[in-house]
Design goal:
single chain; two-stranded antiparallel sheet; EC 7.1.1.-; mainly alpha; 18 helices; disordered N terminus; ubiquinone; membrane; disordered C terminus; NAD; 450 residues
């Protein structure tokens, strides 16, 4: 029986049979994982961005600065909790908790590993799974935005309200593209269960493409490359991470939706952002990167996908995607709001719709292996999409000189300072110069230039 379970992927029939103490243990593990991922995620981001910007980052509190995030959390906990006079007290209080609860709830349907033995009970390393687990992930992602919107509205201030409205438009724009990317996944896998999607991305097989037999990878990040690219861009927009952090936008909205928050409520919003980043990374690993299955070189070892080892591969993939989140923040500038909305509605959405139609047509063709069709069409389509997104749209124009800018300024605009930057002296400077000059001496040009 033990050998059978080691080689068997979890199915829906394996859930709902655990004793109460095992269920409580799984729930606590998911919660502790979310909290520890936040603490380590903040430290990881500050260290990586510091390395990219050639500075040390946190390195004083604890070994390698590991306790710096804990110290910052204690500092926020002891700060004064200020309640704006015009705020809606009930909504203002519960808004941060909504974001945190929704982000943590999404981890309940994410598989961390296969069937394992815990104190003699065979159970999957997953809190629960349902036949529509992908819809649960979408619902948690959509509900998490309500915390940001309600927090901005309940603050009773202008900038938080603008940040909440931006978050609403952002969610509507990028939720559609993310949903269509997931459609491609369960069209290919034939199920909306997360454990079933991981099982469908099994070990590589050999398929025939245009008369040639080649090894076919199982990860949907390769087979459904356009969906993977669009999905990852969409989750960056969903989690309000740079370069899509427009609901915060410090240079435009002070701090956006959480401008009026302080102390533990501000810490909850910060917690929800990092939990959402880790959760969406775990969802991406589940849907596109094979879940807890080991990558190719490690699969040569027969026991790579059995026992507790798959948790190591799963956490490694999650850390890799979190690094990409941090990499984007340290590299790309924030988009303008009109560019952000245009990119979601006029670029990602049409491309995703066309790809879904192509995928549906490929599945309708008979006598042709599904993986072979996806390799022959999906990979070139994904590479073409990447080239379209990152290819420069136009040749950069030479920057005009300062004199050309002065000559081309519109008529009636504000006056410009002198081009030689010799600003006339201030009244105080004139008074000091006059006091130093003899009374019967007229100040010369040298003194006027002080």
């Amino acid at each position: 029986m033990r050998a059978i379970y080691l080689a068997q992927d979890p199915t829906l029939a394996d859930f709902g049979r655990d004793p109460w103490w095992l269920v409580v243990g799984k729930v606590l593990f998911a919660f502790v994982f979310a909290v520890l991922a936040t603490l380590l995620g903040v430290w990881f981001e500050r260290r990586v961005v510091g390395f990219m910007q050639v500075r040390p980052g946190p390195n004083q509190v604890g070994p390698l600065g590991l306790l710096q995030t804990l110290a910052d959390g204690l500092k926020m906990a002891f700060k004064e909790d200020i309640l704006p006079r015009a705020a809606d007290k009930v909504v203002y209080f519960f808004a941060p908790t909504i974001s945190v609860i929704c982000a943590v709830t999404a981890l309940s349907v994410v598989p961390f590993g296969p069937m394992v033995s815990i104190f003699g009970h065979w159970t999957p390393l997953q809190v629960t799974d349902v036949s529509v687990a992908v819809l649960v992930l979408l619902a948690c992602s959509s509900m998490g935005i309500y915390g940001i919107v309600l927090g901005g509205w309940a603050s009773g201030s202008t900038y938080p309200l603008l940040g909440g409205l931006r978050s609403t438009a952002q969610m509507i724009s990028y939720e559609v593209a993310m949903g269509l990317s997931i459609v491609a996944v369960f069209m290919t896998a034939g199920t909306m269960s997360t454990s079933g999607i991981v099982a469908a991305q099994g070990d590589a097989t050999r398929v025939t493409v245009f008369g040639t037999e080649i090894p076919a990878p199982g990860w949907y990040a390769i087979l459904l490359l356009p969906s993977f690219v669009i999905f990852f861009i969409a989750i960056v927009g969903e989690t309000n991470r740079a370069p899509f952090d427009l609901p915060e936008a410090e240079s435009e909205l002070v701090a956006g939706f959480m401008t009026e928050y302080s102390s533990l409520k501000f810490a909850l919003f910060m917690l929800s952002e990092y939990v959402s980043m880790v959760t969406m990374s775990a969802v991406t690993v589940t849907l596109f990167l094979g879940g807890w299955r080991a990558p190719w070189p490690i699969t040569l070892w027969e026991g790579a996908n059995s026992g507790w080892w798959p948790m190591l591969w799963f956490f490694g993939k999650v850390i890799m995607l979190v690094f990409v989140f941090v990499w984007l923040r340290g590299t790309l500038p924030r988009l303008r709001y009109d560019q952000f909305m245009r990119f979601g509605w006029k670029v990602l959405l049409p491309i995703n719709l066309v790809w879904i139609l192509v995928l549906s047509g490929l599945r309708s063709i008979e006598d042709w292996d599904t993986r072979g069709k996806l390799i022959a069409v999906g990979i070139p389509a994904g590479l073409l999409l990447l080239a379209t997104l990152f290819w420069p749209s136009r040749k950069p124009q030479p920057r005009p000189t300062v004199q050309e800018q002065v000559n081309n300024r519109p008529h009636g605009s504000f006056p410009l300072p002198p081009m030689d930057l010799q600003v006339p002296p201030s009244p105080r400077t004139r008074r000091v110069v006059a006091e130093r000059e003899p009374a019967n001496t007229v100040a010369g040009p040298e003194s006027r230039e002080v």
